[in-house]
Design brief:
The protein has 181 residues and is α+β, with helices and mostly antiparallel strands. Helix content is 20%, strand content 31%. It is globular, with a radius of gyration of 19 Å.
Length: 181
């Protein structure tokens, strides 16, 4: 009977090496990383950030370099956060390893520079703050698709983000990624 069962069970799909190229990356946006936890207070906070100046949307640039097929996949993204970037408190539904390429980032009280990294488990809320040089990092996730869930942002945190953006925005137009300086 065991022989019969094994003959009828399809073989698992064979994984293959897959090349990816920077020129084929796709922008990380609301469709590739859906927003969750967006209540009226979050909408007001996001609105406050956008009202801080005309370049508020330019605070960060993230591209997905690789996404494997299927729900059990993996992904790799490159992110560039400009000087003074502060994220809202949030989590993701997938584990992530952040690896700092250039510049500096703070996750809570941990200050990370080039070659440093941090593992953030799924559903762990955190805030990312970027130093005076901006920050470039790689994001390795154990999922091909993932979300962002806004959690526990109070009015003071939204104000801090908006003030930092307004203060740093004038230099963003000519700011280069730290790795290209």
């Amino acid at each position: 009977m065991n022989n019969e069962k094994s003959l009828n069970t399809p073989a698992p799909a064979r994984k293959r090496m897959t090349l990816f190229r920077a020129g084929e990356s796709i922008a990380l946006d609301h469709e590739t990383m859906p927003f969750e936890g967006v209540d009226p207070a979050t909408m007001a906070g996001l609105g406050r950030i956008m009202a801080s100046g005309p370049r508020a949307a330019d605070a960060s640039h993230t591209t997905i370099l690789f996404q494997s097929a299927g729900e059990e996949g993996v992904s790799l993204s490159h992110a560039w956060f400009k000087t003074g970037f502060i994220s809202p408190r949030h989590s993701h539904n997938a584990d992530c390893i952040y690896y700092i390429l250039a510049g500096e980032a703070r996750f809570g009280s941990a200050r990370l520079g080039p070659g440093d990294g941090i593992y953030v488990p799924a559903e762990q809320a955190y805030v990312l703050e970027v130093g005076d040089e901006g920050c470039e990092l790689l994001e390795f996730r154990n999922a091909a698709q993932f979300n962002i869930h806004f959690k526990g942002n109070d009015e003071a945190h939204w104000a801090k983000i908006a003030q930092s953006y307004a203060r740093h925005m004038p230099q963003w137009e000519n700011e280069l990624p730290p790795s290209r300086r």
